Amino acid sequence: MGGTGPLVEVRNVSKIYGRPPRQVVAVERVSFEIRPGEFVALLGPSGCGKSTLLRMITGLAQPSEGEIRYRGQPLRGINPYATIVFQTFALYPWLTVLGNVELALKARGVPPAQRRERALQLIDMVGLDGFEHAYPRELSGGMRQKVGFARALAAEPELLCMDEPFSALDVLSAEALRGELMELWLSKRLPIQAILLVTHNIEEAVWMADRLILMDKDPGRVIAELEVRLPHPRRRKDAYFQAMVDRVYATIAGRTEEQVPGKRPGEPGRAYRMPEARINAVAGLTEKLLEEGGWADLYRLAEELRYELDDMLTIVEAAELLGFVKVAEGDITLTPLGEAFAEASILARKEIVAGRLLRLPIIRWIYETLHADDDGRVSADYFREQLQLDFTPEEAERQLDIAIHWGRYAELFAYDEDADELFLEEVPAPAMD
Ligand SMILES: Nc1ncnc2c1ncn2[C@@H]1O[C@H](COP(=O)(O)OP(=O)(O)OP(=O)(O)O)[C@@H](O)[C@H]1O
């Protein structure tokens, strides 16, 4: 294959979507390399720019700043050496498994005479032997994804990129497919030189990859790189494996700053994005921690509560913001306030939350705006517009939803759906005249 240098070099890459004042910095000054023979996983919370990076490496999107090199050459346009496997595959429903794979070979210019044989080999390779003549509708989700893999492999890519390829599958199919992919990769029966996997499943990344690139969001950036020095096949119960998962958790979680950095929408600086967590989930977390004696290992807790990384991080972030927990080195501890909350009555809980929420700039701003209004009612559109100075329209809507959900819980303010207005629960007494 020639050359011992890196296959992919991402150098100081930033990607900015939109125009001022509504820009989204999807990734900021990201640098890393992928070397031949490596299986690399990009891991991080939702919105940290993983898919954006994958799109840039495959040439489907261009960096706003910085450069991507492939085998030492600046990448321009589509990367002909890379293929991408998505979460779900668009298969042609009117073609059989064989037809779908043959079509991918045709697209690559493989002559008709060789297509059939090669397609059959690929189908065999992904473990779909016997299903050549089945139609997509006759296959399970896991099998359809295997056809997707066969089609991606038909392109004989040097670099196989995968964007959450197992996340749409049920647990067992995902596990089986991971196993088959690892076997293929380790057996070196493929011309693939390197694999880049995007995931937010920590265990999956530690189970498969040689190196983990950990990212955080707002803006999307690389926060750490970790090598996984474990031979294959890896065992999840292995102490090193668990320690590695703990380390990843410790690096990604618990990054909420004590004093919420923040400002109100429209003020210079960056508005703090509130995590989309239900108070019930936060309450559940504090109760569980109380039961555990006030302390738990974050990774095991997530496993026990059956939370995906993203959900867990969001709930933990909200609990941290409210001052109920502290996270350090992969452990989560209940604070005295968190303990008080977990043991409090519903009414007392509302009061505790109200006090803490008013420290969050967006909530305080809504609360004060309503108080400044004569009848304590303001159109939701006003808040939307202001929030859109800092967030995309979708994110602004989400922030408003979170604010309403939290504000309602704490009885700071409420929302009138018919009028699309926010209002104070306790309307200031009208002036007498
Ligand atoms: N075409 C676009 N226009 C505007 N903003 C975008 C666009 N694509 C992505 N973004 C924003 O860029 C940021 C990074 O998105 P990206 O999809 O790359 O993250 P991700 O880590 O892959 O997230 P997920 O795991 O949810 O897919 C997000 O804030 C997202 O809203």
UniProtKB/TrEMBL annotation:
<dbReference type="Pfam" id="PF00005">
    <property type="entry name" value="ABC_tran"/>
</dbReference>
<dbReference type="InterPro" id="IPR050166">
    <property type="entry name" value="ABC_transporter_ATP-bind"/>
</dbReference>
<keyword id="KW-0813">Transport</keyword>
<dbReference type="GO" id="GO:0016887">
    <property type="term" value="F:ATP hydrolysis activity"/>
</dbReference>
<dbReference type="GO" id="GO:0005524">
    <property type="term" value="F:ATP binding"/>
</dbReference>
<dbReference type="InterPro" id="IPR018632">
    <property type="entry name" value="AAA-associated_dom_C"/>
</dbReference>
<dbReference type="InterPro" id="IPR003593">
    <property type="entry name" value="AAA+_ATPase"/>
</dbReference>
<keyword id="KW-0547">Nucleotide-binding</keyword>
<protein>
    <submittedName>
        <fullName>NitT/TauT family transport system ATP-binding protein</fullName>
    </submittedName>
</protein>
<dbReference type="InterPro" id="IPR027417">
    <property type="entry name" value="P-loop_NTPase"/>
</dbReference>
<dbReference type="InterPro" id="IPR003439">
    <property type="entry name" value="ABC_transporter-like_ATP-bd"/>
</dbReference>
<dbReference type="Pfam" id="PF09821">
    <property type="entry name" value="AAA_assoc_C"/>
</dbReference>
<keyword id="KW-0067">ATP-binding</keyword>
<feature type="domain" description="ABC transporter">
    <location>
        <begin position="8"/>
        <end position="242"/>
    </location>
</feature>
<dbReference type="InterPro" id="IPR017871">
    <property type="entry name" value="ABC_transporter-like_CS"/>
</dbReference>
